[in-house]
Every structure is written in C-alpha cells, then in structure tokens.
Amino acid sequence: MPESITALLHGPDQPGIVAGVSGWILKHGGNIIHADQHHDAREGVFFQRVEWTHEDGSDPVGRASSFARLAEAMGMQVRTALSSARIKVVVMVSTAGHAFHQLLLDWHEGDLPCEIVAVISNHRHLERASGNYGVPYYHVPVPREPKGKGKGKGKGKGTGKDDAEREQVAIIREHGAELIVMARYMQILSETFLEECRAPVINIHHSFLPAFAGARPYHQAHDRGVKLIGATAHYATGVLDDGPIIHQDVRRVSHRHTVQDMLRIGRDLEKVVLSEAVRLHLENRILVYGKKTVVFD
Amino acid sequence: MPESITALLHGPDQPGIVAGVSGWILKHGGNIIHADQHHDAREGVFFQRVEWTHEDGSDPVGRASSFARLAEAMGMQVRTALSSARIKVVVMVSTAGHAFHQLLLDWHEGDLPCEIVAVISNHRHLERASGNYGVPYYHVPVPREPKGKGKGKGKGKGTGKDDAEREQVAIIREHGAELIVMARYMQILSETFLEECRAPVINIHHSFLPAFAGARPYHQAHDRGVKLIGATAHYATGVLDDGPIIHQDVRRVSHRHTVQDMLRIGRDLEKVVLSEAVRLHLENRILVYGKKTVVFD
Amino acid sequence: MPESITALLHGPDQPGIVAGVSGWILKHGGNIIHADQHHDAREGVFFQRVEWTHEDGSDPVGRASSFARLAEAMGMQVRTALSSARIKVVVMVSTAGHAFHQLLLDWHEGDLPCEIVAVISNHRHLERASGNYGVPYYHVPVPREPKGKGKGKGKGKGTGKDDAEREQVAIIREHGAELIVMARYMQILSETFLEECRAPVINIHHSFLPAFAGARPYHQAHDRGVKLIGATAHYATGVLDDGPIIHQDVRRVSHRHTVQDMLRIGRDLEKVVLSEAVRLHLENRILVYGKKTVVFD
Amino acid sequence: MPESITALLHGPDQPGIVAGVSGWILKHGGNIIHADQHHDAREGVFFQRVEWTHEDGSDPVGRASSFARLAEAMGMQVRTALSSARIKVVVMVSTAGHAFHQLLLDWHEGDLPCEIVAVISNHRHLERASGNYGVPYYHVPVPREPKGKGKGKGKGKGTGKDDAEREQVAIIREHGAELIVMARYMQILSETFLEECRAPVINIHHSFLPAFAGARPYHQAHDRGVKLIGATAHYATGVLDDGPIIHQDVRRVSHRHTVQDMLRIGRDLEKVVLSEAVRLHLENRILVYGKKTVVFD
C-alpha cells in the first residue's frame, strides 16, 4: 500500500472548501481514498477529514505541508499526518492491569499504529509485565498529600505530588511523547502537568459521563440503582472528568450485581472503550472543538 | 391456564424463609411455577417473588390472603396478586403521542395486563386518538404559573396549577386508578399530588439518569457531546427525576445528530422503555426499597 | 430552509470524481451541506451521496438533471431527489398491527418524508385503524393455495394468489407508488409481482438474517436456544429473505423467554428497525450494489 | 466468607421439589444465599440452581453428597460443587492471542475461579507468553491432512491428526483437566477426541450462530452485507458449530468496515464472550439439556 496523507481541517463554513480541497488533490495527482465532512449548522463550522495517496509516492512530507498551506489560505486550521507515521505514546498506570494489557496487546497485534515508548506508574505492580512487552517502566511514587485533595496547587513549592509530576513530565519529554494515555492511572493530574506535558492526554473514566464523575463511580452507580453501567474515554482537561468525550459504551446490570460484579464487568468495558479511543486518535479521526469531538469513523 | 397467585415479599434476611414459603404452598396443594429470590448481603434484606397455582383453582382470594398472613408472621412485608386481576391505569400525556400510542397499542395487543380507564392531558392533541382507542379523555388545562418554577407549593391556595392537580386527583380517584403512567406528561407533579393520588406513578425521563435530569435533556446531551443517549423509566417521587429506576436503555449517536435527530431517536427509545417498565409493574415483578428497585425479570 | 438537492452516485472508481462533483456545485453557486463517499477497494467501485443547496433556490429540477448529466458523463450511475419531494408509498399488512402503526405514526409525526397513499391487506384487521389515519385501505384476500408452497409460479394461469397479486399491482400502479413497504405482510411475493410493481420493496424479517430465514423464525430461535433475537429490514428480491440488508438490531433473551415472549419483544424490535430502514430510503441514503447496501447515515 | 455449596438439578417437573430442597437445607442448618429455578412448561422439565452455606462449615463434602442423594431420590439429576473448588482447565490455542490473553489475565485477576494447568497449541506463537503466565505449554503440531476435510475419521490408523489428538488427550488426562477451552483453536476436533477427553469443551465461534457456521465467518458476513457481527460461545459437540449456546454478543458494522476491520472488532467481541462463558461454567451456572442451555445468571 502506498503512503497516504491524512488531513484534518476545521474552520468557518463557506462555499468552495470541498471543491478547493479535492481540486488541489486532483491537480497534484493525488487520489482521494476517504473523505468525510461535517457542517455544524448551529455554530457555522466546517470539519473535514480527507485521506489521499499519490501514485508516484514521492515527497509525502513536502506535499502534506504544501496542502496545509492551501488549507490555511482558505481560513482553516489543519493537521496532517502520514500513514507510515508512528507517534510516540506514553502510558500511565496505577495497579489495575486490564486497560494496560489491552493497549499493549492491541499494539503488538498491529491494531494501534504507534510506538509505545514508556510506561509510568505510581506503583510497581505492572513492572514485570511491562518488561515482557519490551517497554521501559518508570516507577514514580506519588506521596499522599498531607490533607485535603489539594491537586498540587497552592501547596508551596516542593510538595511530593508536584515533584512527582515534574519527574513524569521529564520522562514524557525525554521520550518525545506525542500522546499520553491514562490507562486507569488513579491520580488527578494538575493543570500544570497538562500544560507541561505538551501532548494530548486520553483518560478512561469508569462511568457513563456525565453521570458519576469523580471517585468510585461504580459505588455511586450501585447506590443509585442504575440498570446500565458505562465507561467513557475523553481528553483530559483541567476540570475533572469534563473533557471532550471520544467514545462511550454501556452494559446492562441488575440488582443481582454487587459493586464487585460491576467492577469486573466494568473492566472489560473500560479497556475496550479506551483502546478504541486511542485507535481513533492514532488514525487521526478526531477533531476537538469546544467541549466536543467530531469523530470521523 | 388456571389462575395463578403471585406474591412479592421482602424483609429482614433469616434462615427458613424459602422453606417456609415453599412448604406452605406444597401443604396447600399448590405448584410453584416461578420463584426467584434475592439477598442484599450489605443491607441484610431478603426479597422474593413467587408465583404458584392450585389445581383445583378454588378460592384464590382466600388463599392469597392466607399466604399473606404466613409471610407477615415470618416478618415479611408482602403483596399478592391474582393472574386474572386487571388493575386500573390512568395515563397522563401532554402533546407528544409516541409513548401514549405505544401504551395503548400494547394494551390492545394484550401485552399490558391492565385496564386503561382514562387519559388526562393538559392539551387536546390526543383527544381524538384516545377516543379511537375507546378510552375517556379528560382535558385539564394547567395554567402557566406567574413566575419561578414554584412546583405549586407555598403559592397560597388557589393557584391555577393547584386547582388543576385537584381536578386530576379527583378523576384518578373516581376511576379507582391503581397506577398512574406519565407518558411524556410535561408538568412537574407536586408532592401533594403524589400523596393524594394514592397510587404509584411511573414516569419516563428522556435521558440516561442520573445524567441530564431536569428540562430539555437532549439539548443538554447535545451540548455535552455524549456518544450515547438514553431513556429512564422510574417511579416518581417528590424529588424531580430522582425516584427508583425501573428500566433504562441507550442508543448510539454521533456529531452528525442534531438535537432534532436526538429527539426522534429518543422517541423510539422512550416509548419502548416506558412500556416495558409498565409491563414489569403490572406483572408484579418490581419491589422498591430505598431509592432502588429489585426487578424480577 | 431552502430546497436541497441530493444525489446518489456510484460507478468505477477513478481520480477526480469528488473534485468534479464539488467543482460543478461550486461553479453553479451551490453550497454542499453534506457529502459522504465510499470506495470499495476490493471491487473498485466509488459511491457518493452529496446534498447541496442553491441560495437563489431557482429551478432545482433543472439543476438536478443538469447535475445528473455531469455525473453520467463521468461514468457514474446517478439518482437525484429534491428535499421537498414526497414519494408515494404503499404499505402492505396482514393482521399484526405493530409495524403498521409505527409507520403511520412516524409519518404523522413528520419523521417519514413521504406520502402514504394506500394500505393493502389480505385481512380486514387494520381497516378501521387505517381509516383513522386517513389512508385508503384495500382488502385483497389471498386464497390458500391448494397444496405446496407454490409461490405462484408454474401454477397455470388464474390461481387465486396470481389473481390477488394482479389486483395488488393494479392498486400500486393506480396510486403511482414509488415504494412498497411490507409491514409484516405474511405472504411470499412472486418474482412476477416484484417486477410488475416497478418499485423497490422493503420487507421486515423477524430474525437476525441470515439466521432463521423462512417461516416462524422465533420458533426456530427458541428451538436453537440463541441468546439474542433480531430483526432485519431488507429489500425484497426473488429469493426469500435474501435481499440486500438495510438495517438490523437485536435484543437479549434467555431460557426464561417463551416463544410468546420472543414474539412480544420482537414486535418492538421489528417496528423500529423497519421504520428506520424506510426513513433511510426516503432520505436517499441507500445505494444497493450486488447483494449489499451502502447506507450513508 | 464461609464455604458455600452449589447444586444444579434438573428432572421431571413435579410439585414439592422447591419445598423438598429448601426444607432439607433448613433442617441441616444451612442458609440459602441464592436460589433460582426454571420450569420448561413445554417439556415438563424443572431446573434449579441453589447455593447455600452452613454456619458451622464442617464437612461440606459430606453434606454435598448427602444433598445429592436427596435430589436423586426426588428423581433429579444433580451436580454439586464447593465454592473453594478450583477445577483444572486446559486451554487450546493456535496463533491468535486475544482470547488466550483475556482468559489468562482474567484468571490472574481472580475473575475465573479455576486452575489453568496447561496450554496446548498446534503452533509456537504463544509459548513465551504462556511461560510469562507460569503455565506449561505443549506444542502438538497437527499435520495438514493430505486431502479433503476428513476430520480424522476413517483415515486408517495413524494419520497425523489422529496422532496429534491422541497426544492432546494424553496431556489433558495427565493434568486431570475437567474443562477444555478452545480459545480460537483453529482445528476441528473429532468426535473421538470429544469422547476421550472426558471433559466439557467450550468453543468460541466468531459469528452470531447459527448464521455463518464453518470457516471464515467474517468473510461470509462481509459478503452478505450484514449490519451486525457477532460471537458465540458454545459447548462443542460432534456437529461443527452446533452445540448448546452459552453466550452471544454483537457489534454494529457498516459498509465502511473491511474484513480486516471486522476481524479486529471481532477480537474484542470474541474474547469477552468466551471469558464470560467460561466464568458462567466455573460458577456452576449452566445446565445443558438437549441442544440448549439454562444459564442461571
């Protein structure tokens, strides 16, 4: 298969964008293999994902940046990627292994076109497993904060959590990570971290957001007596469990299910939802605008 | 098929309840055709649904009340019902017809073992349709309240909404209704109404509760960018959209779906979820305890 | 909202189709509001659905046919439709009302952009209901064939079923029907009928095809002990239950469900699946090729 | 938690079974913690799963066999198990690892109450992974048969496949396996094997059976243009893909999904469906009768 170029565009809706884009590709000898667009009529915003090949295959980088200039000239924000690219991913975990193993196994299977360059954890539980997958493992303990939920802000310099985040950021930058995946990493990340790591962060929340944000969602769900439990993959923002939603799924439960059962069922739900969200990101299928996503699946 | 007796029991868990119940039925010549029990280990509560027949079929009313005395003697709360019973149901609607038609059609089809004795509405939209189904229709206009959301409390006597609720209660009592179904009735019922109508009230909320309680849930869902929308049938309590959940279901949506699309998809979801919840109630499959339900399906 | 034009194209894949289509629309002052394309790489076929408006709104018919000529010049097969168009639909039913009512109610609600011009049935069960919806009802009894399954072929002229089909075709043509919907019409239509009615026929089969084709699928499903039951909407062809699939859905069942329960659950499944399939057809979202569909949802 | 005893009974329906069972447990100082029964009215068969504890906890083995004698005296077939029991399981795999890893990880997580004693494969792909889980791996190559599908019968003694099956059976017996799980083992097992291994065999078929039995089901599904793909866990019998179904699930697909996409989506489906089926078996929740299962979940 020849190298393909994918572009994600969005900007103010106006006539002629599709024609401009497809005309440019045709003129430069390209062949569109997938194109999908969306108009948000309420907001007046145009979104497009277009993927194309050039038969001669020469200079895809030059062509991608040349296309980007065209899109910008049409007033669009644009991101391009080559099908051969494998962006660098850092996975953050705590003790639970289900989402971690799903990501690593899917990656081995070739389903996640990326390079998993490091695992960071506040525990040692998955160190040996990480080694088996051939991925370096960084153990960065996060001390319990003395009191309150603090989130590491206004604690005076040098709280333990601040230090830990600085160490995490250093590892992330050292590996040149372009995506961070929180595979049930059970610490709240500070806004400082989210800014400093300079890469999007995908998180899996173990509930059907916006229901049951925050801690122990299956306990909350059990107490409320819901008949379905869910999982939500989203981009992390400074506001807990409030970032743009990428993917969600649910499973049926009943009064027979204890919290333990929900945790078990939830594991299968979470890991598949997270892996799917990561795949959508890696295939350049997601555009974020405001608090929402456009997912070109 | 001979008449069957169904009993719903719950109370403090203790050894010997199942043996006591099944022993009594055997001794009285009955044959259990369905029995299901549940133990809430955390709360120490026992729940049972048991359905049985007597081959001779004589005096089911006497036998049911005799059984109830046994259950009470074991410290259980109990409710019994005969399979031939058809409880009286009042349906409340506003302008939207989808949930209304589903209920009336399912009832005609024989899927809802009840007697729909009246429809009450604050609008005239479904009057002719109600007539086609042969059910009396009561138009009880509810005046807009002057300001605030008031819920009819502390408004001084004689606000229009109080008067309307009194009229509704009178109709409900006159028909001897044993169940009220709010089939997208778009007014908030006061606590006074809920007490006075002396019958359980099943409501359909057009979201996956507890997400998006309150007004215009599909608009809320659209703004939040969720990837699944839902519907929730629950018993109404004094707290809006907070009563025990009976049944829920969801459908997948994407950025392509406008609020209008969600409303359309939601209609099919809501009507089926509501009708299923009503059927479960009519078949005596639901036990409420605290804010939750045990549904013996 | 101004009139929009929708075009469905398909043909041999080749560079420049998207550019040609969007360029033409731009040149003629149109604005694309939705465009979606698909390439079947294995078969080398290109599929596109494009919908656009002209701000001046003048002569949409002329513009649509002018566009069609362009598409044909590019070697594409093309079908165009105006957003204001309401194609004429004939609904065929037997005794079961669930799918019939769903269609008629969705139509009343404005969810099905068509004109339901007639109902044809081999029974009288839904005659009064049809009258309530204001749609003429034609009772065309279909005599049982003397023996075998015959399908009306090779039976010599003038069997009762042949006569009935001739009468049905006459009604369909008289009303100028452009779509036939079999809403649980329980007779097998002959190939002659399918040719003579000169309109696509959408059928709902009450199983998850290709499992359980043919008669009494819920009985088959019950006997096989499946854990999910389904419904399939498809275009009817000369081979029973073998036409291109438009839409499918399933529900979970268990050993507790009798065949009667499956029939009841199936009713809610079938009616929603059928109505959705009809809506997709009416919105010009379906392209058929070979035994398959491309559904631009 | 004290040891609990689970009994699975079935036999001709008759009055007094529930009373007999619960009376016996009460008399012997037991406390029922879960009981569920089912009556197949068409077949006249009664099924029950009952789980109970004795507070003193003494001699559970003796009590279980004493209960079994009671059940047999009532004409029931019965199987009992202790909650502390961990039956021995052999997993059979070929090259694909998804179902294998799910089982091994769920087992490590404590979700599968068993002892995985060996992995048998006709390939070496998962040997190292098996070692990482601490489970012995047996590589038993299965030579391609010279022609036809033969299934190892009537081939004269000593075909390669017969030899391989004999070796597999020897390993299975040596480890005392009480359950065989085919986690995408891609060889058809002979009837001789199924008899000789003296343990139930659970298989995962990568389609929604009975649709697409046999080879390459996703290719079949893609060719047929279905809108949902599925996976089915079932007990293996002498007839390919025809054994009693334990669990099924589906995912939505569209024309956009290639066979490769379906294979990928299917992996997540298959592994979760298989693991759930194995868990149901290990928790003694499944009764097989005829071609069907009663699953007490």
What does this entry look like structurally?
The structure is a homotetramer of 297-residue chains. In chain A, 32% of the residues lie in helices and 29% in strands. With 297 residues, chain A is an alpha/beta fold. Chain A folds into 2 domains: 4-82, ACT domain (Alpha-Beta Plaits); 87-295, Formyl transferase, N-terminal domain (Rossmann fold), CATH 3.40.50.170. In chain A, the strands form 3 sheets. Chain A has a 7-stranded mixed β-sheet with strand order 7-6-5-8-9-10-11, with helices on both faces. Chain A is globular, with a radius of gyration of 21 Å. The model of chain A is unreliable at 149-156 (pLDDT under 50). At the A-B interface, strand 11 and strand 13 of A face strand 11 and strand 13 of B.
